[in-house]
Amino acid sequence: MNPSEVFEIIEKHTRFMRDSIPLIASENLTSLSVRRCYLSDLGHRYAEGKVGHRFYEGCSFVDEIEERAVDLTKKIFEAEHANVQPISGVVANIAAFFALTDVGDTIMSISVPCGGHISHDTVSAAGLRGLRVIHYPFDNEEMNINVDETRNVALREKPKLFILGSSLILFRQPVKEIKEIADEIGAYVMYDASHVLGLIAGKAFQNPLKEGADVMTGSTHKTFFGPQRAIIASKKELAEKVDRAVFPGVVSNHHLNTLAGYVVAAMEILEFGQDYAKQVVKNARALAEELYNLGYKVLGEKKGFTETHQVAVDVRDFGGGEKVAKTLENAGIVLNKNLLPWDSLESTDNPSGIRIGVQEVTRIGMGEEEMKIIAEIIDAAIKEKKSAEELRKEVRELKERFNIIKYSFDQSEAYIFPELK
Ligand SMILES: *Cc1c(COP(=O)(O)O)cnc(C)c1O
To answer: Which of 97, 109, 119, 250 to mutate to test the pocket of ligand 1 (most atoms within 8 A of CB)?
Structure first.
C-alpha cells in the first residue's frame, strides 16, 4: 500500500488538464483563495440546521460564514430568500421538488435531447419524487420552447410545476410567458440555472427571478466561480418550504469547507463577474462564428448562435459526436458529445452533436483571438489536416501562455499541484 501512487495519478491528471484546452461546458477552475477554504478545518466539522439554530456546539464561526453566503447570494441574484446548503445541483433540484410538488403531480420539463437535465426527468430526481413528467413542445430551429403549443398542452395536462433552464442552453428562455401560463393554472415556475449561474450573476443573461420564476436552483461550479455545490433562491413566501426540503429533507451536514469557498467565489463574482460574463459570451460567439465560417453546422444560426457560454455543433457529417469528441481528445481538446433535439434517447452513445463551453478558457484569460486558434485546431483535428501529435503540441504552446486564474483577487496559477513544479 503506497499513498504516493494516488498522487502520481493526480499528477498525471493535472498535467493532462494543464496541457489541454478544457471546453467541457459544466466545469471551471477555482482560485487559490477558494482552494484554501477546501483544505481548512471546516471540512472536518458538522453544522446541521440553520444559522443560530444548530444541533451541535462549535458552530459559531460556521454561522458567520453561512450568514455571509446567504447575504451574498440574495444580493447577487436580487433574491428574497436563499438557501446555500444543497451540496450539488441535483440535490438542490430534489429539494425543490420536495418543496413544490406532491407525489403523483405532473411537471413540465425540457426533454434531455432538447437540452434538459436528467434530474428533470423520471430516470432521475423527478422520478424519485414520483412525478409524472411531460415535455415542452420545442422548436429545433429556434432552439427554444414553443410557447403557444406549450399553452395548449399545459391547459390540458395541468402541470403543478414548470421547469426551465437546461444543460444544453444557447438562448434566453421565455420565463415571463411560462409564468403567465403557470398563473392561469396555479402552478409554480422553477428555473434550473446550473449552467448559467455565473452569467446571471454577471448580468450577461436573464435573471429568472426578476422575470417571475418562483424558485431558482443552480450548481455553483459551472459558469459561477465556486466549488462543487449548489444554491436555491426563491420568493419569500416559499422560504420555509424550501428550507425544510433542504434540511432535514435532503442534506444533513452540508460541507462547510466548500461553503466557505462559495463565499469567496461569490465575492469574486461581485467584483469581477460582469467583465468575465461579458467576455464569456463574446468568446462563445467568436468560436461559433469561426466554426460556422469553416463550414460546420453550428446550431442557432438564425439567432446569432449563442447567448451563453455554450456552442453546439451538429457533427453527423464527420461520424457523429462520439467519434469527433474522441478525435478531439487525442488532439488535446477536451469536450463532450451531446444529444441534439432530433436524437432519440437510444442514441446517447453516439449522438449527433458536440457541446463546447468557453467559460474555463475565459477564466484563464483567453479572448476572441484565441477562439479563432481553437476553432482552427478543432477543424484540423476533425478533418485530419495534421497529426494528433502536432495538434497536441499546438495546444500546449497556446495553453502555456494562459496559466493564471483571471477575475480573482489572488491571480493564482491555474493548475496548482506541488509535484508539477
Ligand atoms: C449540471 C446540471 C445539474 C446537476 O448539477 P450537479 O451539481 O452536477 O449535481 C442540474 N441541472 C442542470 C440543468 C445541469 O446542467
So the answer is: 119
Q: Strand 188-192 to strand 215-219: parallel, antiparallel, or no bridges (unpaired)?
A: parallel
**Number of compact structural domains in the chain:** 2
Q: Are 96 and 105 in contact (CB under 8 A)?
A: no
H-run or E-run covering 161: strand 161-164
Same domain? For 125 and 235 the reply is yes
Centre of ligand 1 to C-alpha 90, Å, is 6
201: containing domain: 33-266
Give me the amino acid identity at 415.
Answer: Y
- Ligand 1 centroid to Cα of residue 190, in Å, is 14
Same domain, 312 and 247: no
Query: How far is residue 94 from each of residues 97, 238, 354, measured CA to CA in Å?
Result: 5, 15, 28
Question: Does 318 lie in the same domain as 253?
Answer: no
Phi, psi of 221 (to 5 degrees): -130, 15
Has residue 421 got a pLDDT over 80?
no
pLDDT mean across residues, the chain: 97
Pocket around ligand 1 at a 6 A CB cut-off: 26, 88-90, 93, 117, 119, 165-167, 192, 194-195, 219, 230
Are residues 205 and 325 both part of a single domain?
A: no
pLDDT at 420: 82
Q: Choose among 276, 277, 297: nearest CA to 288.
A: 297
Whether 204 and 351 map to the same domain: the answer is no
Residues 158 and 126 in one domain: yes
Q: What are the DSSP calls for 326-374, one per residue? A: HHHHHTTEE-EEE--TT--GGGTTS-SEEEEE-HHHHHTT--HHHHHHH
Are both 105 and 197 inside the same structural domain?
yes
**Whether residue 289 is found in the same domain as residue 143:** no
pLDDT, tens digit, 9 for 90 and up, residues 100-132: 999 999 999 999 999 999 999 999 999 999 999
Q: Which residues pair with 144 in a beta bridge?
A: 139
> How do residues 198-225 score in pLDDT, each as one tens digit?
999 999 999 999 999 999 999 999 999 9
Put simply, whether the predicted model's pTM sits higher than 0.85 gets the answer: yes
Q: Please indicate, yes or no, if residue 4 is contained in any of the structural domains.
A: no
CATH number at residue 244: 3.40.640.10
Is residue 19 assigned to a domain?
Answer: no
CATH number reported for the structural domain that contains residue 309 in this entry: 3.90.1150.10
107 lies in a domain? yes
Residue 175 has pLDDT above 90, yes or no: yes
pLDDT by residue (tens digit) across 231-257? Answer: 999 999 999 999 999 999 999 999 999
